[in-house]
Amino acid sequence: MSLTGTPFLYTTVALAVVALVLPFVLWTRLRGPRALRTALRALMLLFAQATAVTLVFVLVNNANNLYDDWADLLGTGNHVRKAADLGADGTGGIAYRKLPKVRQSFTQADGPGMHAAGGVEVTQLKGRVSGVTAEVYVWLPPQYDEPAYRNRKFPVVELLSGYPGSAKAWFGSMKVHEQLEPLMRSGRVAPFILVSPRTNLIARTDTGCANIPGTVNADSWLSIDVPKMVTDNFRAEAAPDGWAAAGYSAGAHCAAKLAVAHPDRYRAAVSLSGYNDPIGERSSLAARNIGLRRANNPYVLLRTYRTPPRIALYLSGEAGDGYEAAVALEQVAKPPTTVHVVFLPRSAGGHTMGLWRPQVPTVFRWLTRELGHHVRGNPAKSATPPGRSSAGSRPAELASGTASRAGGARRR
After folding, report:
1. How far is CA 136 from each of CA 104, 122, 125, 229, 404, rounded to the nearest angstrom?
2. 398: helix, coil or strand?
3. For residue 383, which of 191, 194, 181, 248 has the smallest C-alpha distance?
4. 213-234 tens-digit pLDDT
5. 130-140: buried (b, 16+ CB within 10 Å) or exposed (e) per residue?
6. pLDDT of residue 302
7. pLDDT at 23 over 70
8. Residue 366: helix, strand or coil by DSSP?
9. What is the rounded distance in angstroms from the CA atom of residue 362 to the CA atom of residue 33?
């Protein structure tokens, strides 16, 4: 039973209700020696406490999509079959684009938000290059099955969660498909295929989206195996022009790193409250030594390019949480690399979904422009519901970057 599934939530609610009712019904009806009655009453109280704590955990977990299953929670899951040395480009010399097509079967995903906006599908993918076996969630835009688009290929955004975090988080907590569906239908945002692969591949450890021989090939999983599966099974545009990566927190670091490291696979990346040095997540495998840190630091990679890559980066963050890392990338970027930095006031929401979720419409309008897709209407028009933040800026202003550092400091 999935930790984020509806059946488990209903089960915990039912158990909490039973635990609350039991003392009222049985407290004075217990028979037997006094010691036995005392023990039974203590067990009822402990049962009530346990079910209440469990219910709170399930509600928090569903709201933030931290742990997808019991293996994630208990630290017993491992999705790595093998981790061969695949070399600097992560291919192991394999002409992966010429490999036979990967044909996958998809089922309706379960959990909060998974049935909204047309529904999210899921498949279990065995990565031929990376040696990773894990789930991949896919959402198709509303135009995908329309007759007028039957010969159309669609751009793709690969969505990366934080650590710990479930691949469901972008659809559950972030509500990315629910926010974007009306914007896609109205033509204000291009119809993107949204793909969310598992990024937490080893128990109690953040992979840092890195390739580490003998341990994990997370980079190849995300940048080779998942994109090939998507293009083999859906009408997806080819890389790099039709592909982008987006993430928050540890997933933000991964998105920026993948785009900078592989401009032949991604045209753009969105980083929400990310960092450059993998040491920003101390559980990251990429932070184990200075060599890995440098090899997986987008700042170092971008600075050492002899010919700057043709990529576009959207980087947002608060002071001390993503903003400085974004400015560092902006300072070393040279054309044709472009970097758009957005400063968010400290009071805008903190390192939480509450900060990242309102930015979804704006960053996808930015992606629409950067990937060169024409949309009807005014792409700059905000679809974020109005409402004042404690910094005196609307959520739309915070997400678009029109909230300045000075504006954030005016109201305390």
Report:
1. 11, 6, 7, 10, 37
2. helix
3. 181
4. 999 999 999 999 999 999 999 9
5. bbbbbbbbbbb
6. 97
7. yes
8. helix
9. 67
Compute the average pLDDT of residues 288-301: 97
The reported pLDDT for the residue numbered 5 is 66
- The one-letter amino acid at 178: E
Distant-in-sequence, close-in-space partners of 345: CB < 8 Å, separation ≥ 6: 318, 389, 391, 393, 398, 403, 405, 407, 408, 409
Long-range contact set of residues 100-109: C-beta below 8 Å, sequence gap at least 24: 101/232, 102/128, 102/228, 102/229, 102/232, 102/233, 103/232, 103/233, 104/229, 104/232, 104/233, 106/138, 106/233, 109/137, 109/168, 109/171
Low-confidence winner among 41-55, 276-290, 326-340, 388-402 (lowest mean pLDDT): 388-402
Query: If residue 126 lies in a helix (H) or strand (E), which one and from where to where?
Result: strand 121-126
Q: What is the mean pLDDT of residues 187-194?
A: 97
CA angle 182, 362, 65 (to 5 degrees): 80
What is the model's pLDDT at position 282? 85
